[in-house]
Amino acid sequence: MGSRTLNRLSATQVAKLRVSGRHSDGGGLYLFIDSSGRRRWIFMYTRGGKRTELGLGSARDLSLANARAEAAALRAILASGGDPRAERARNDQILTFGESADAYVEAMRPSWRNAKHAAQWTMTLTRYAEPIRAKPVDEISTQDVLDVLQPLWQRTPETAERLRGRIENVLDAAKARGHRSGENPARWRGHLDQLLPKRQRLSRGHHQALAYDALPTFMVDLRSRDAVAARALEFLILTAARSGEVLGALAGEIDLEKRVWTIPPERMKAGREHRVPLSTSAIEIVKDMRALGRPPFLFPGPKPKAPLSSMAMAMLLRRMKSDVTVHGFRSTFRDWASETTSFPHEVCEMALAHTIANKAEAAYRRGDLFDKRRKLMEAWASYCASSGKRKVVQLKASGRA
Q1: Neighbours of 211 (CB within 10 A)
Q2: CB 128 within 8 A of CB 159
């Protein structure tokens, strides 16, 4: 093999290349860049009329010189009549899918915002992917993936779709580490979308909500109840916050003088700090809760130093014979703001802590429209109280929820 057919790339080129696709260094060695920008070395060879792709590892961890050395060793195996893939399998035991999945979760854990996210990955890749966990990761086929997904696809479509994406990530990582080759059998577009029915996207983002014109009457009933869960739900409605943000709220996050609640990044869906302007009604709730003297959580549960249960507000709604969801009150707020006020769209979206979909707009926006949001939330609080004054109730010191 002539020298001009080898070593086509330089270390500088490898560092600067950004175009997706295969970039040949010669002799079967390629730098592969996928559509998301991930870079890995692959070795491609033909044996017995069959073309095979063998992953060598991430370009982040494997230098050009080391990739060339590995490719040279694989070419030597070919020249002696051997099969590089079979030889590697003998020297480097292929992991099972379960081992690959566990390794992927551990590798990605530091990049995830909280332990709950990692636990969800572990649960789905252990419980739902159990039929394929013992199978070598390089033998996972399209049928294997279908066997895991089909029992869930119609019954719990959102869970099934998340599982599919997680299997795809695990198999991509295994390929990058050289443990499998070829197309990803869990890929959706142009593959599984031809084998599974496209699901109706109604299970995500569509929560049963209360019509905004019914809210003032609902608030009268809510404010008559002497439970911590009632105060938490009222606070959630007044701040248009998510339930996890309210349940995890710490008394120290709230500045009574400045009338602002600062939620840290780790508790926000977007992973960014969020300041919430507090209306007079919301401040009254904070004072009521602090009077209980049960820190650190603003809405304490029955157990010492523990927050209110994640089901407490949902159970309260059930006792109130209301068929709406807790999350649905964010939709109530958004409908009211859009249909009855003149507050700009971006102010309403920022009040809900929504991220800016337009990347160009997001890049130029630095402020959080806090003063404008304060006016919006005061108007919302006034509307919530428009069927009567807030009734002050005596909360039970026992922490009844």
Answers
A1: 12
A2: yes
70 within 8 A of 56, measured Cβ to Cβ: yes
Angle between helices 157-176 and 97-108 (to 10 degrees): 90
CB-based contacts of 112, cutoff 8 Å, min separation 6: 118, 121
Question: Quick one: angle between helices 328-340 and 228-239, nearest 10?
Answer: 40
Instruction: Give residues with Cβ within 8 angstroms of 139, minimum separation 6.
Output: none
Give the single-character DSSP code of 107.
Answer: H
Domains and CATH numbers, the chain: 3-91 (3.30.160.390), 97-194 (1.10.150.130), 212-384 (1.10.443.10)
* Single-letter residue type at 257: E
Note the pTM of the prediction, 2 decimals: 0.52
Tokens representing 301?
């549960």
Question: How many CB atoms lie under 10 A from the CB of residue 316?
Answer: 20
With a CB cutoff of 8 Å and minimum separation 6, the contacts of 352 are: 240, 330, 333, 334
Residues 278 and 325: beta-carbon distance below 8 Å: no
Calculate the CA 112 to chain-centre distance: 8
Cα–Cα distance measured from residue 2 to residue 230, given in angstroms and rounded to the nearest whole number: 79
pLDDT value at position 230? 95
Per residue in 345-394, pLDDT tens? 889 999 998 865 544 444 444 567 899 999 999 999 999 998 744 444 44
**Backbone region of residue 37 per phi and psi (left: phi > 0; alpha: psi in -120 to 50; beta: other values):** left
Gap between the terminal Cα atoms of the chain: 77
pLDDT beneath 50: ranges in the chain: 1-3, 201-206, 358-365, 388-394, 396-401
Give the Cα separation of 123 and 398 in Å (integer).
35
DSSP per residue over 355-372, as a string? PPS-HHHHHH-----HHH
Closest CA to 140 of 180, 84, 90: 180
Q: Give, to the nearest 10 degrees, the angle between helix 97-108 and helix 115-123.
A: 170
**Could you give the strand order of the β-sheet that contains 29-33, starting from the edge strand earlier in sequence?**
21-26, 29-33, 39-47, 50-58
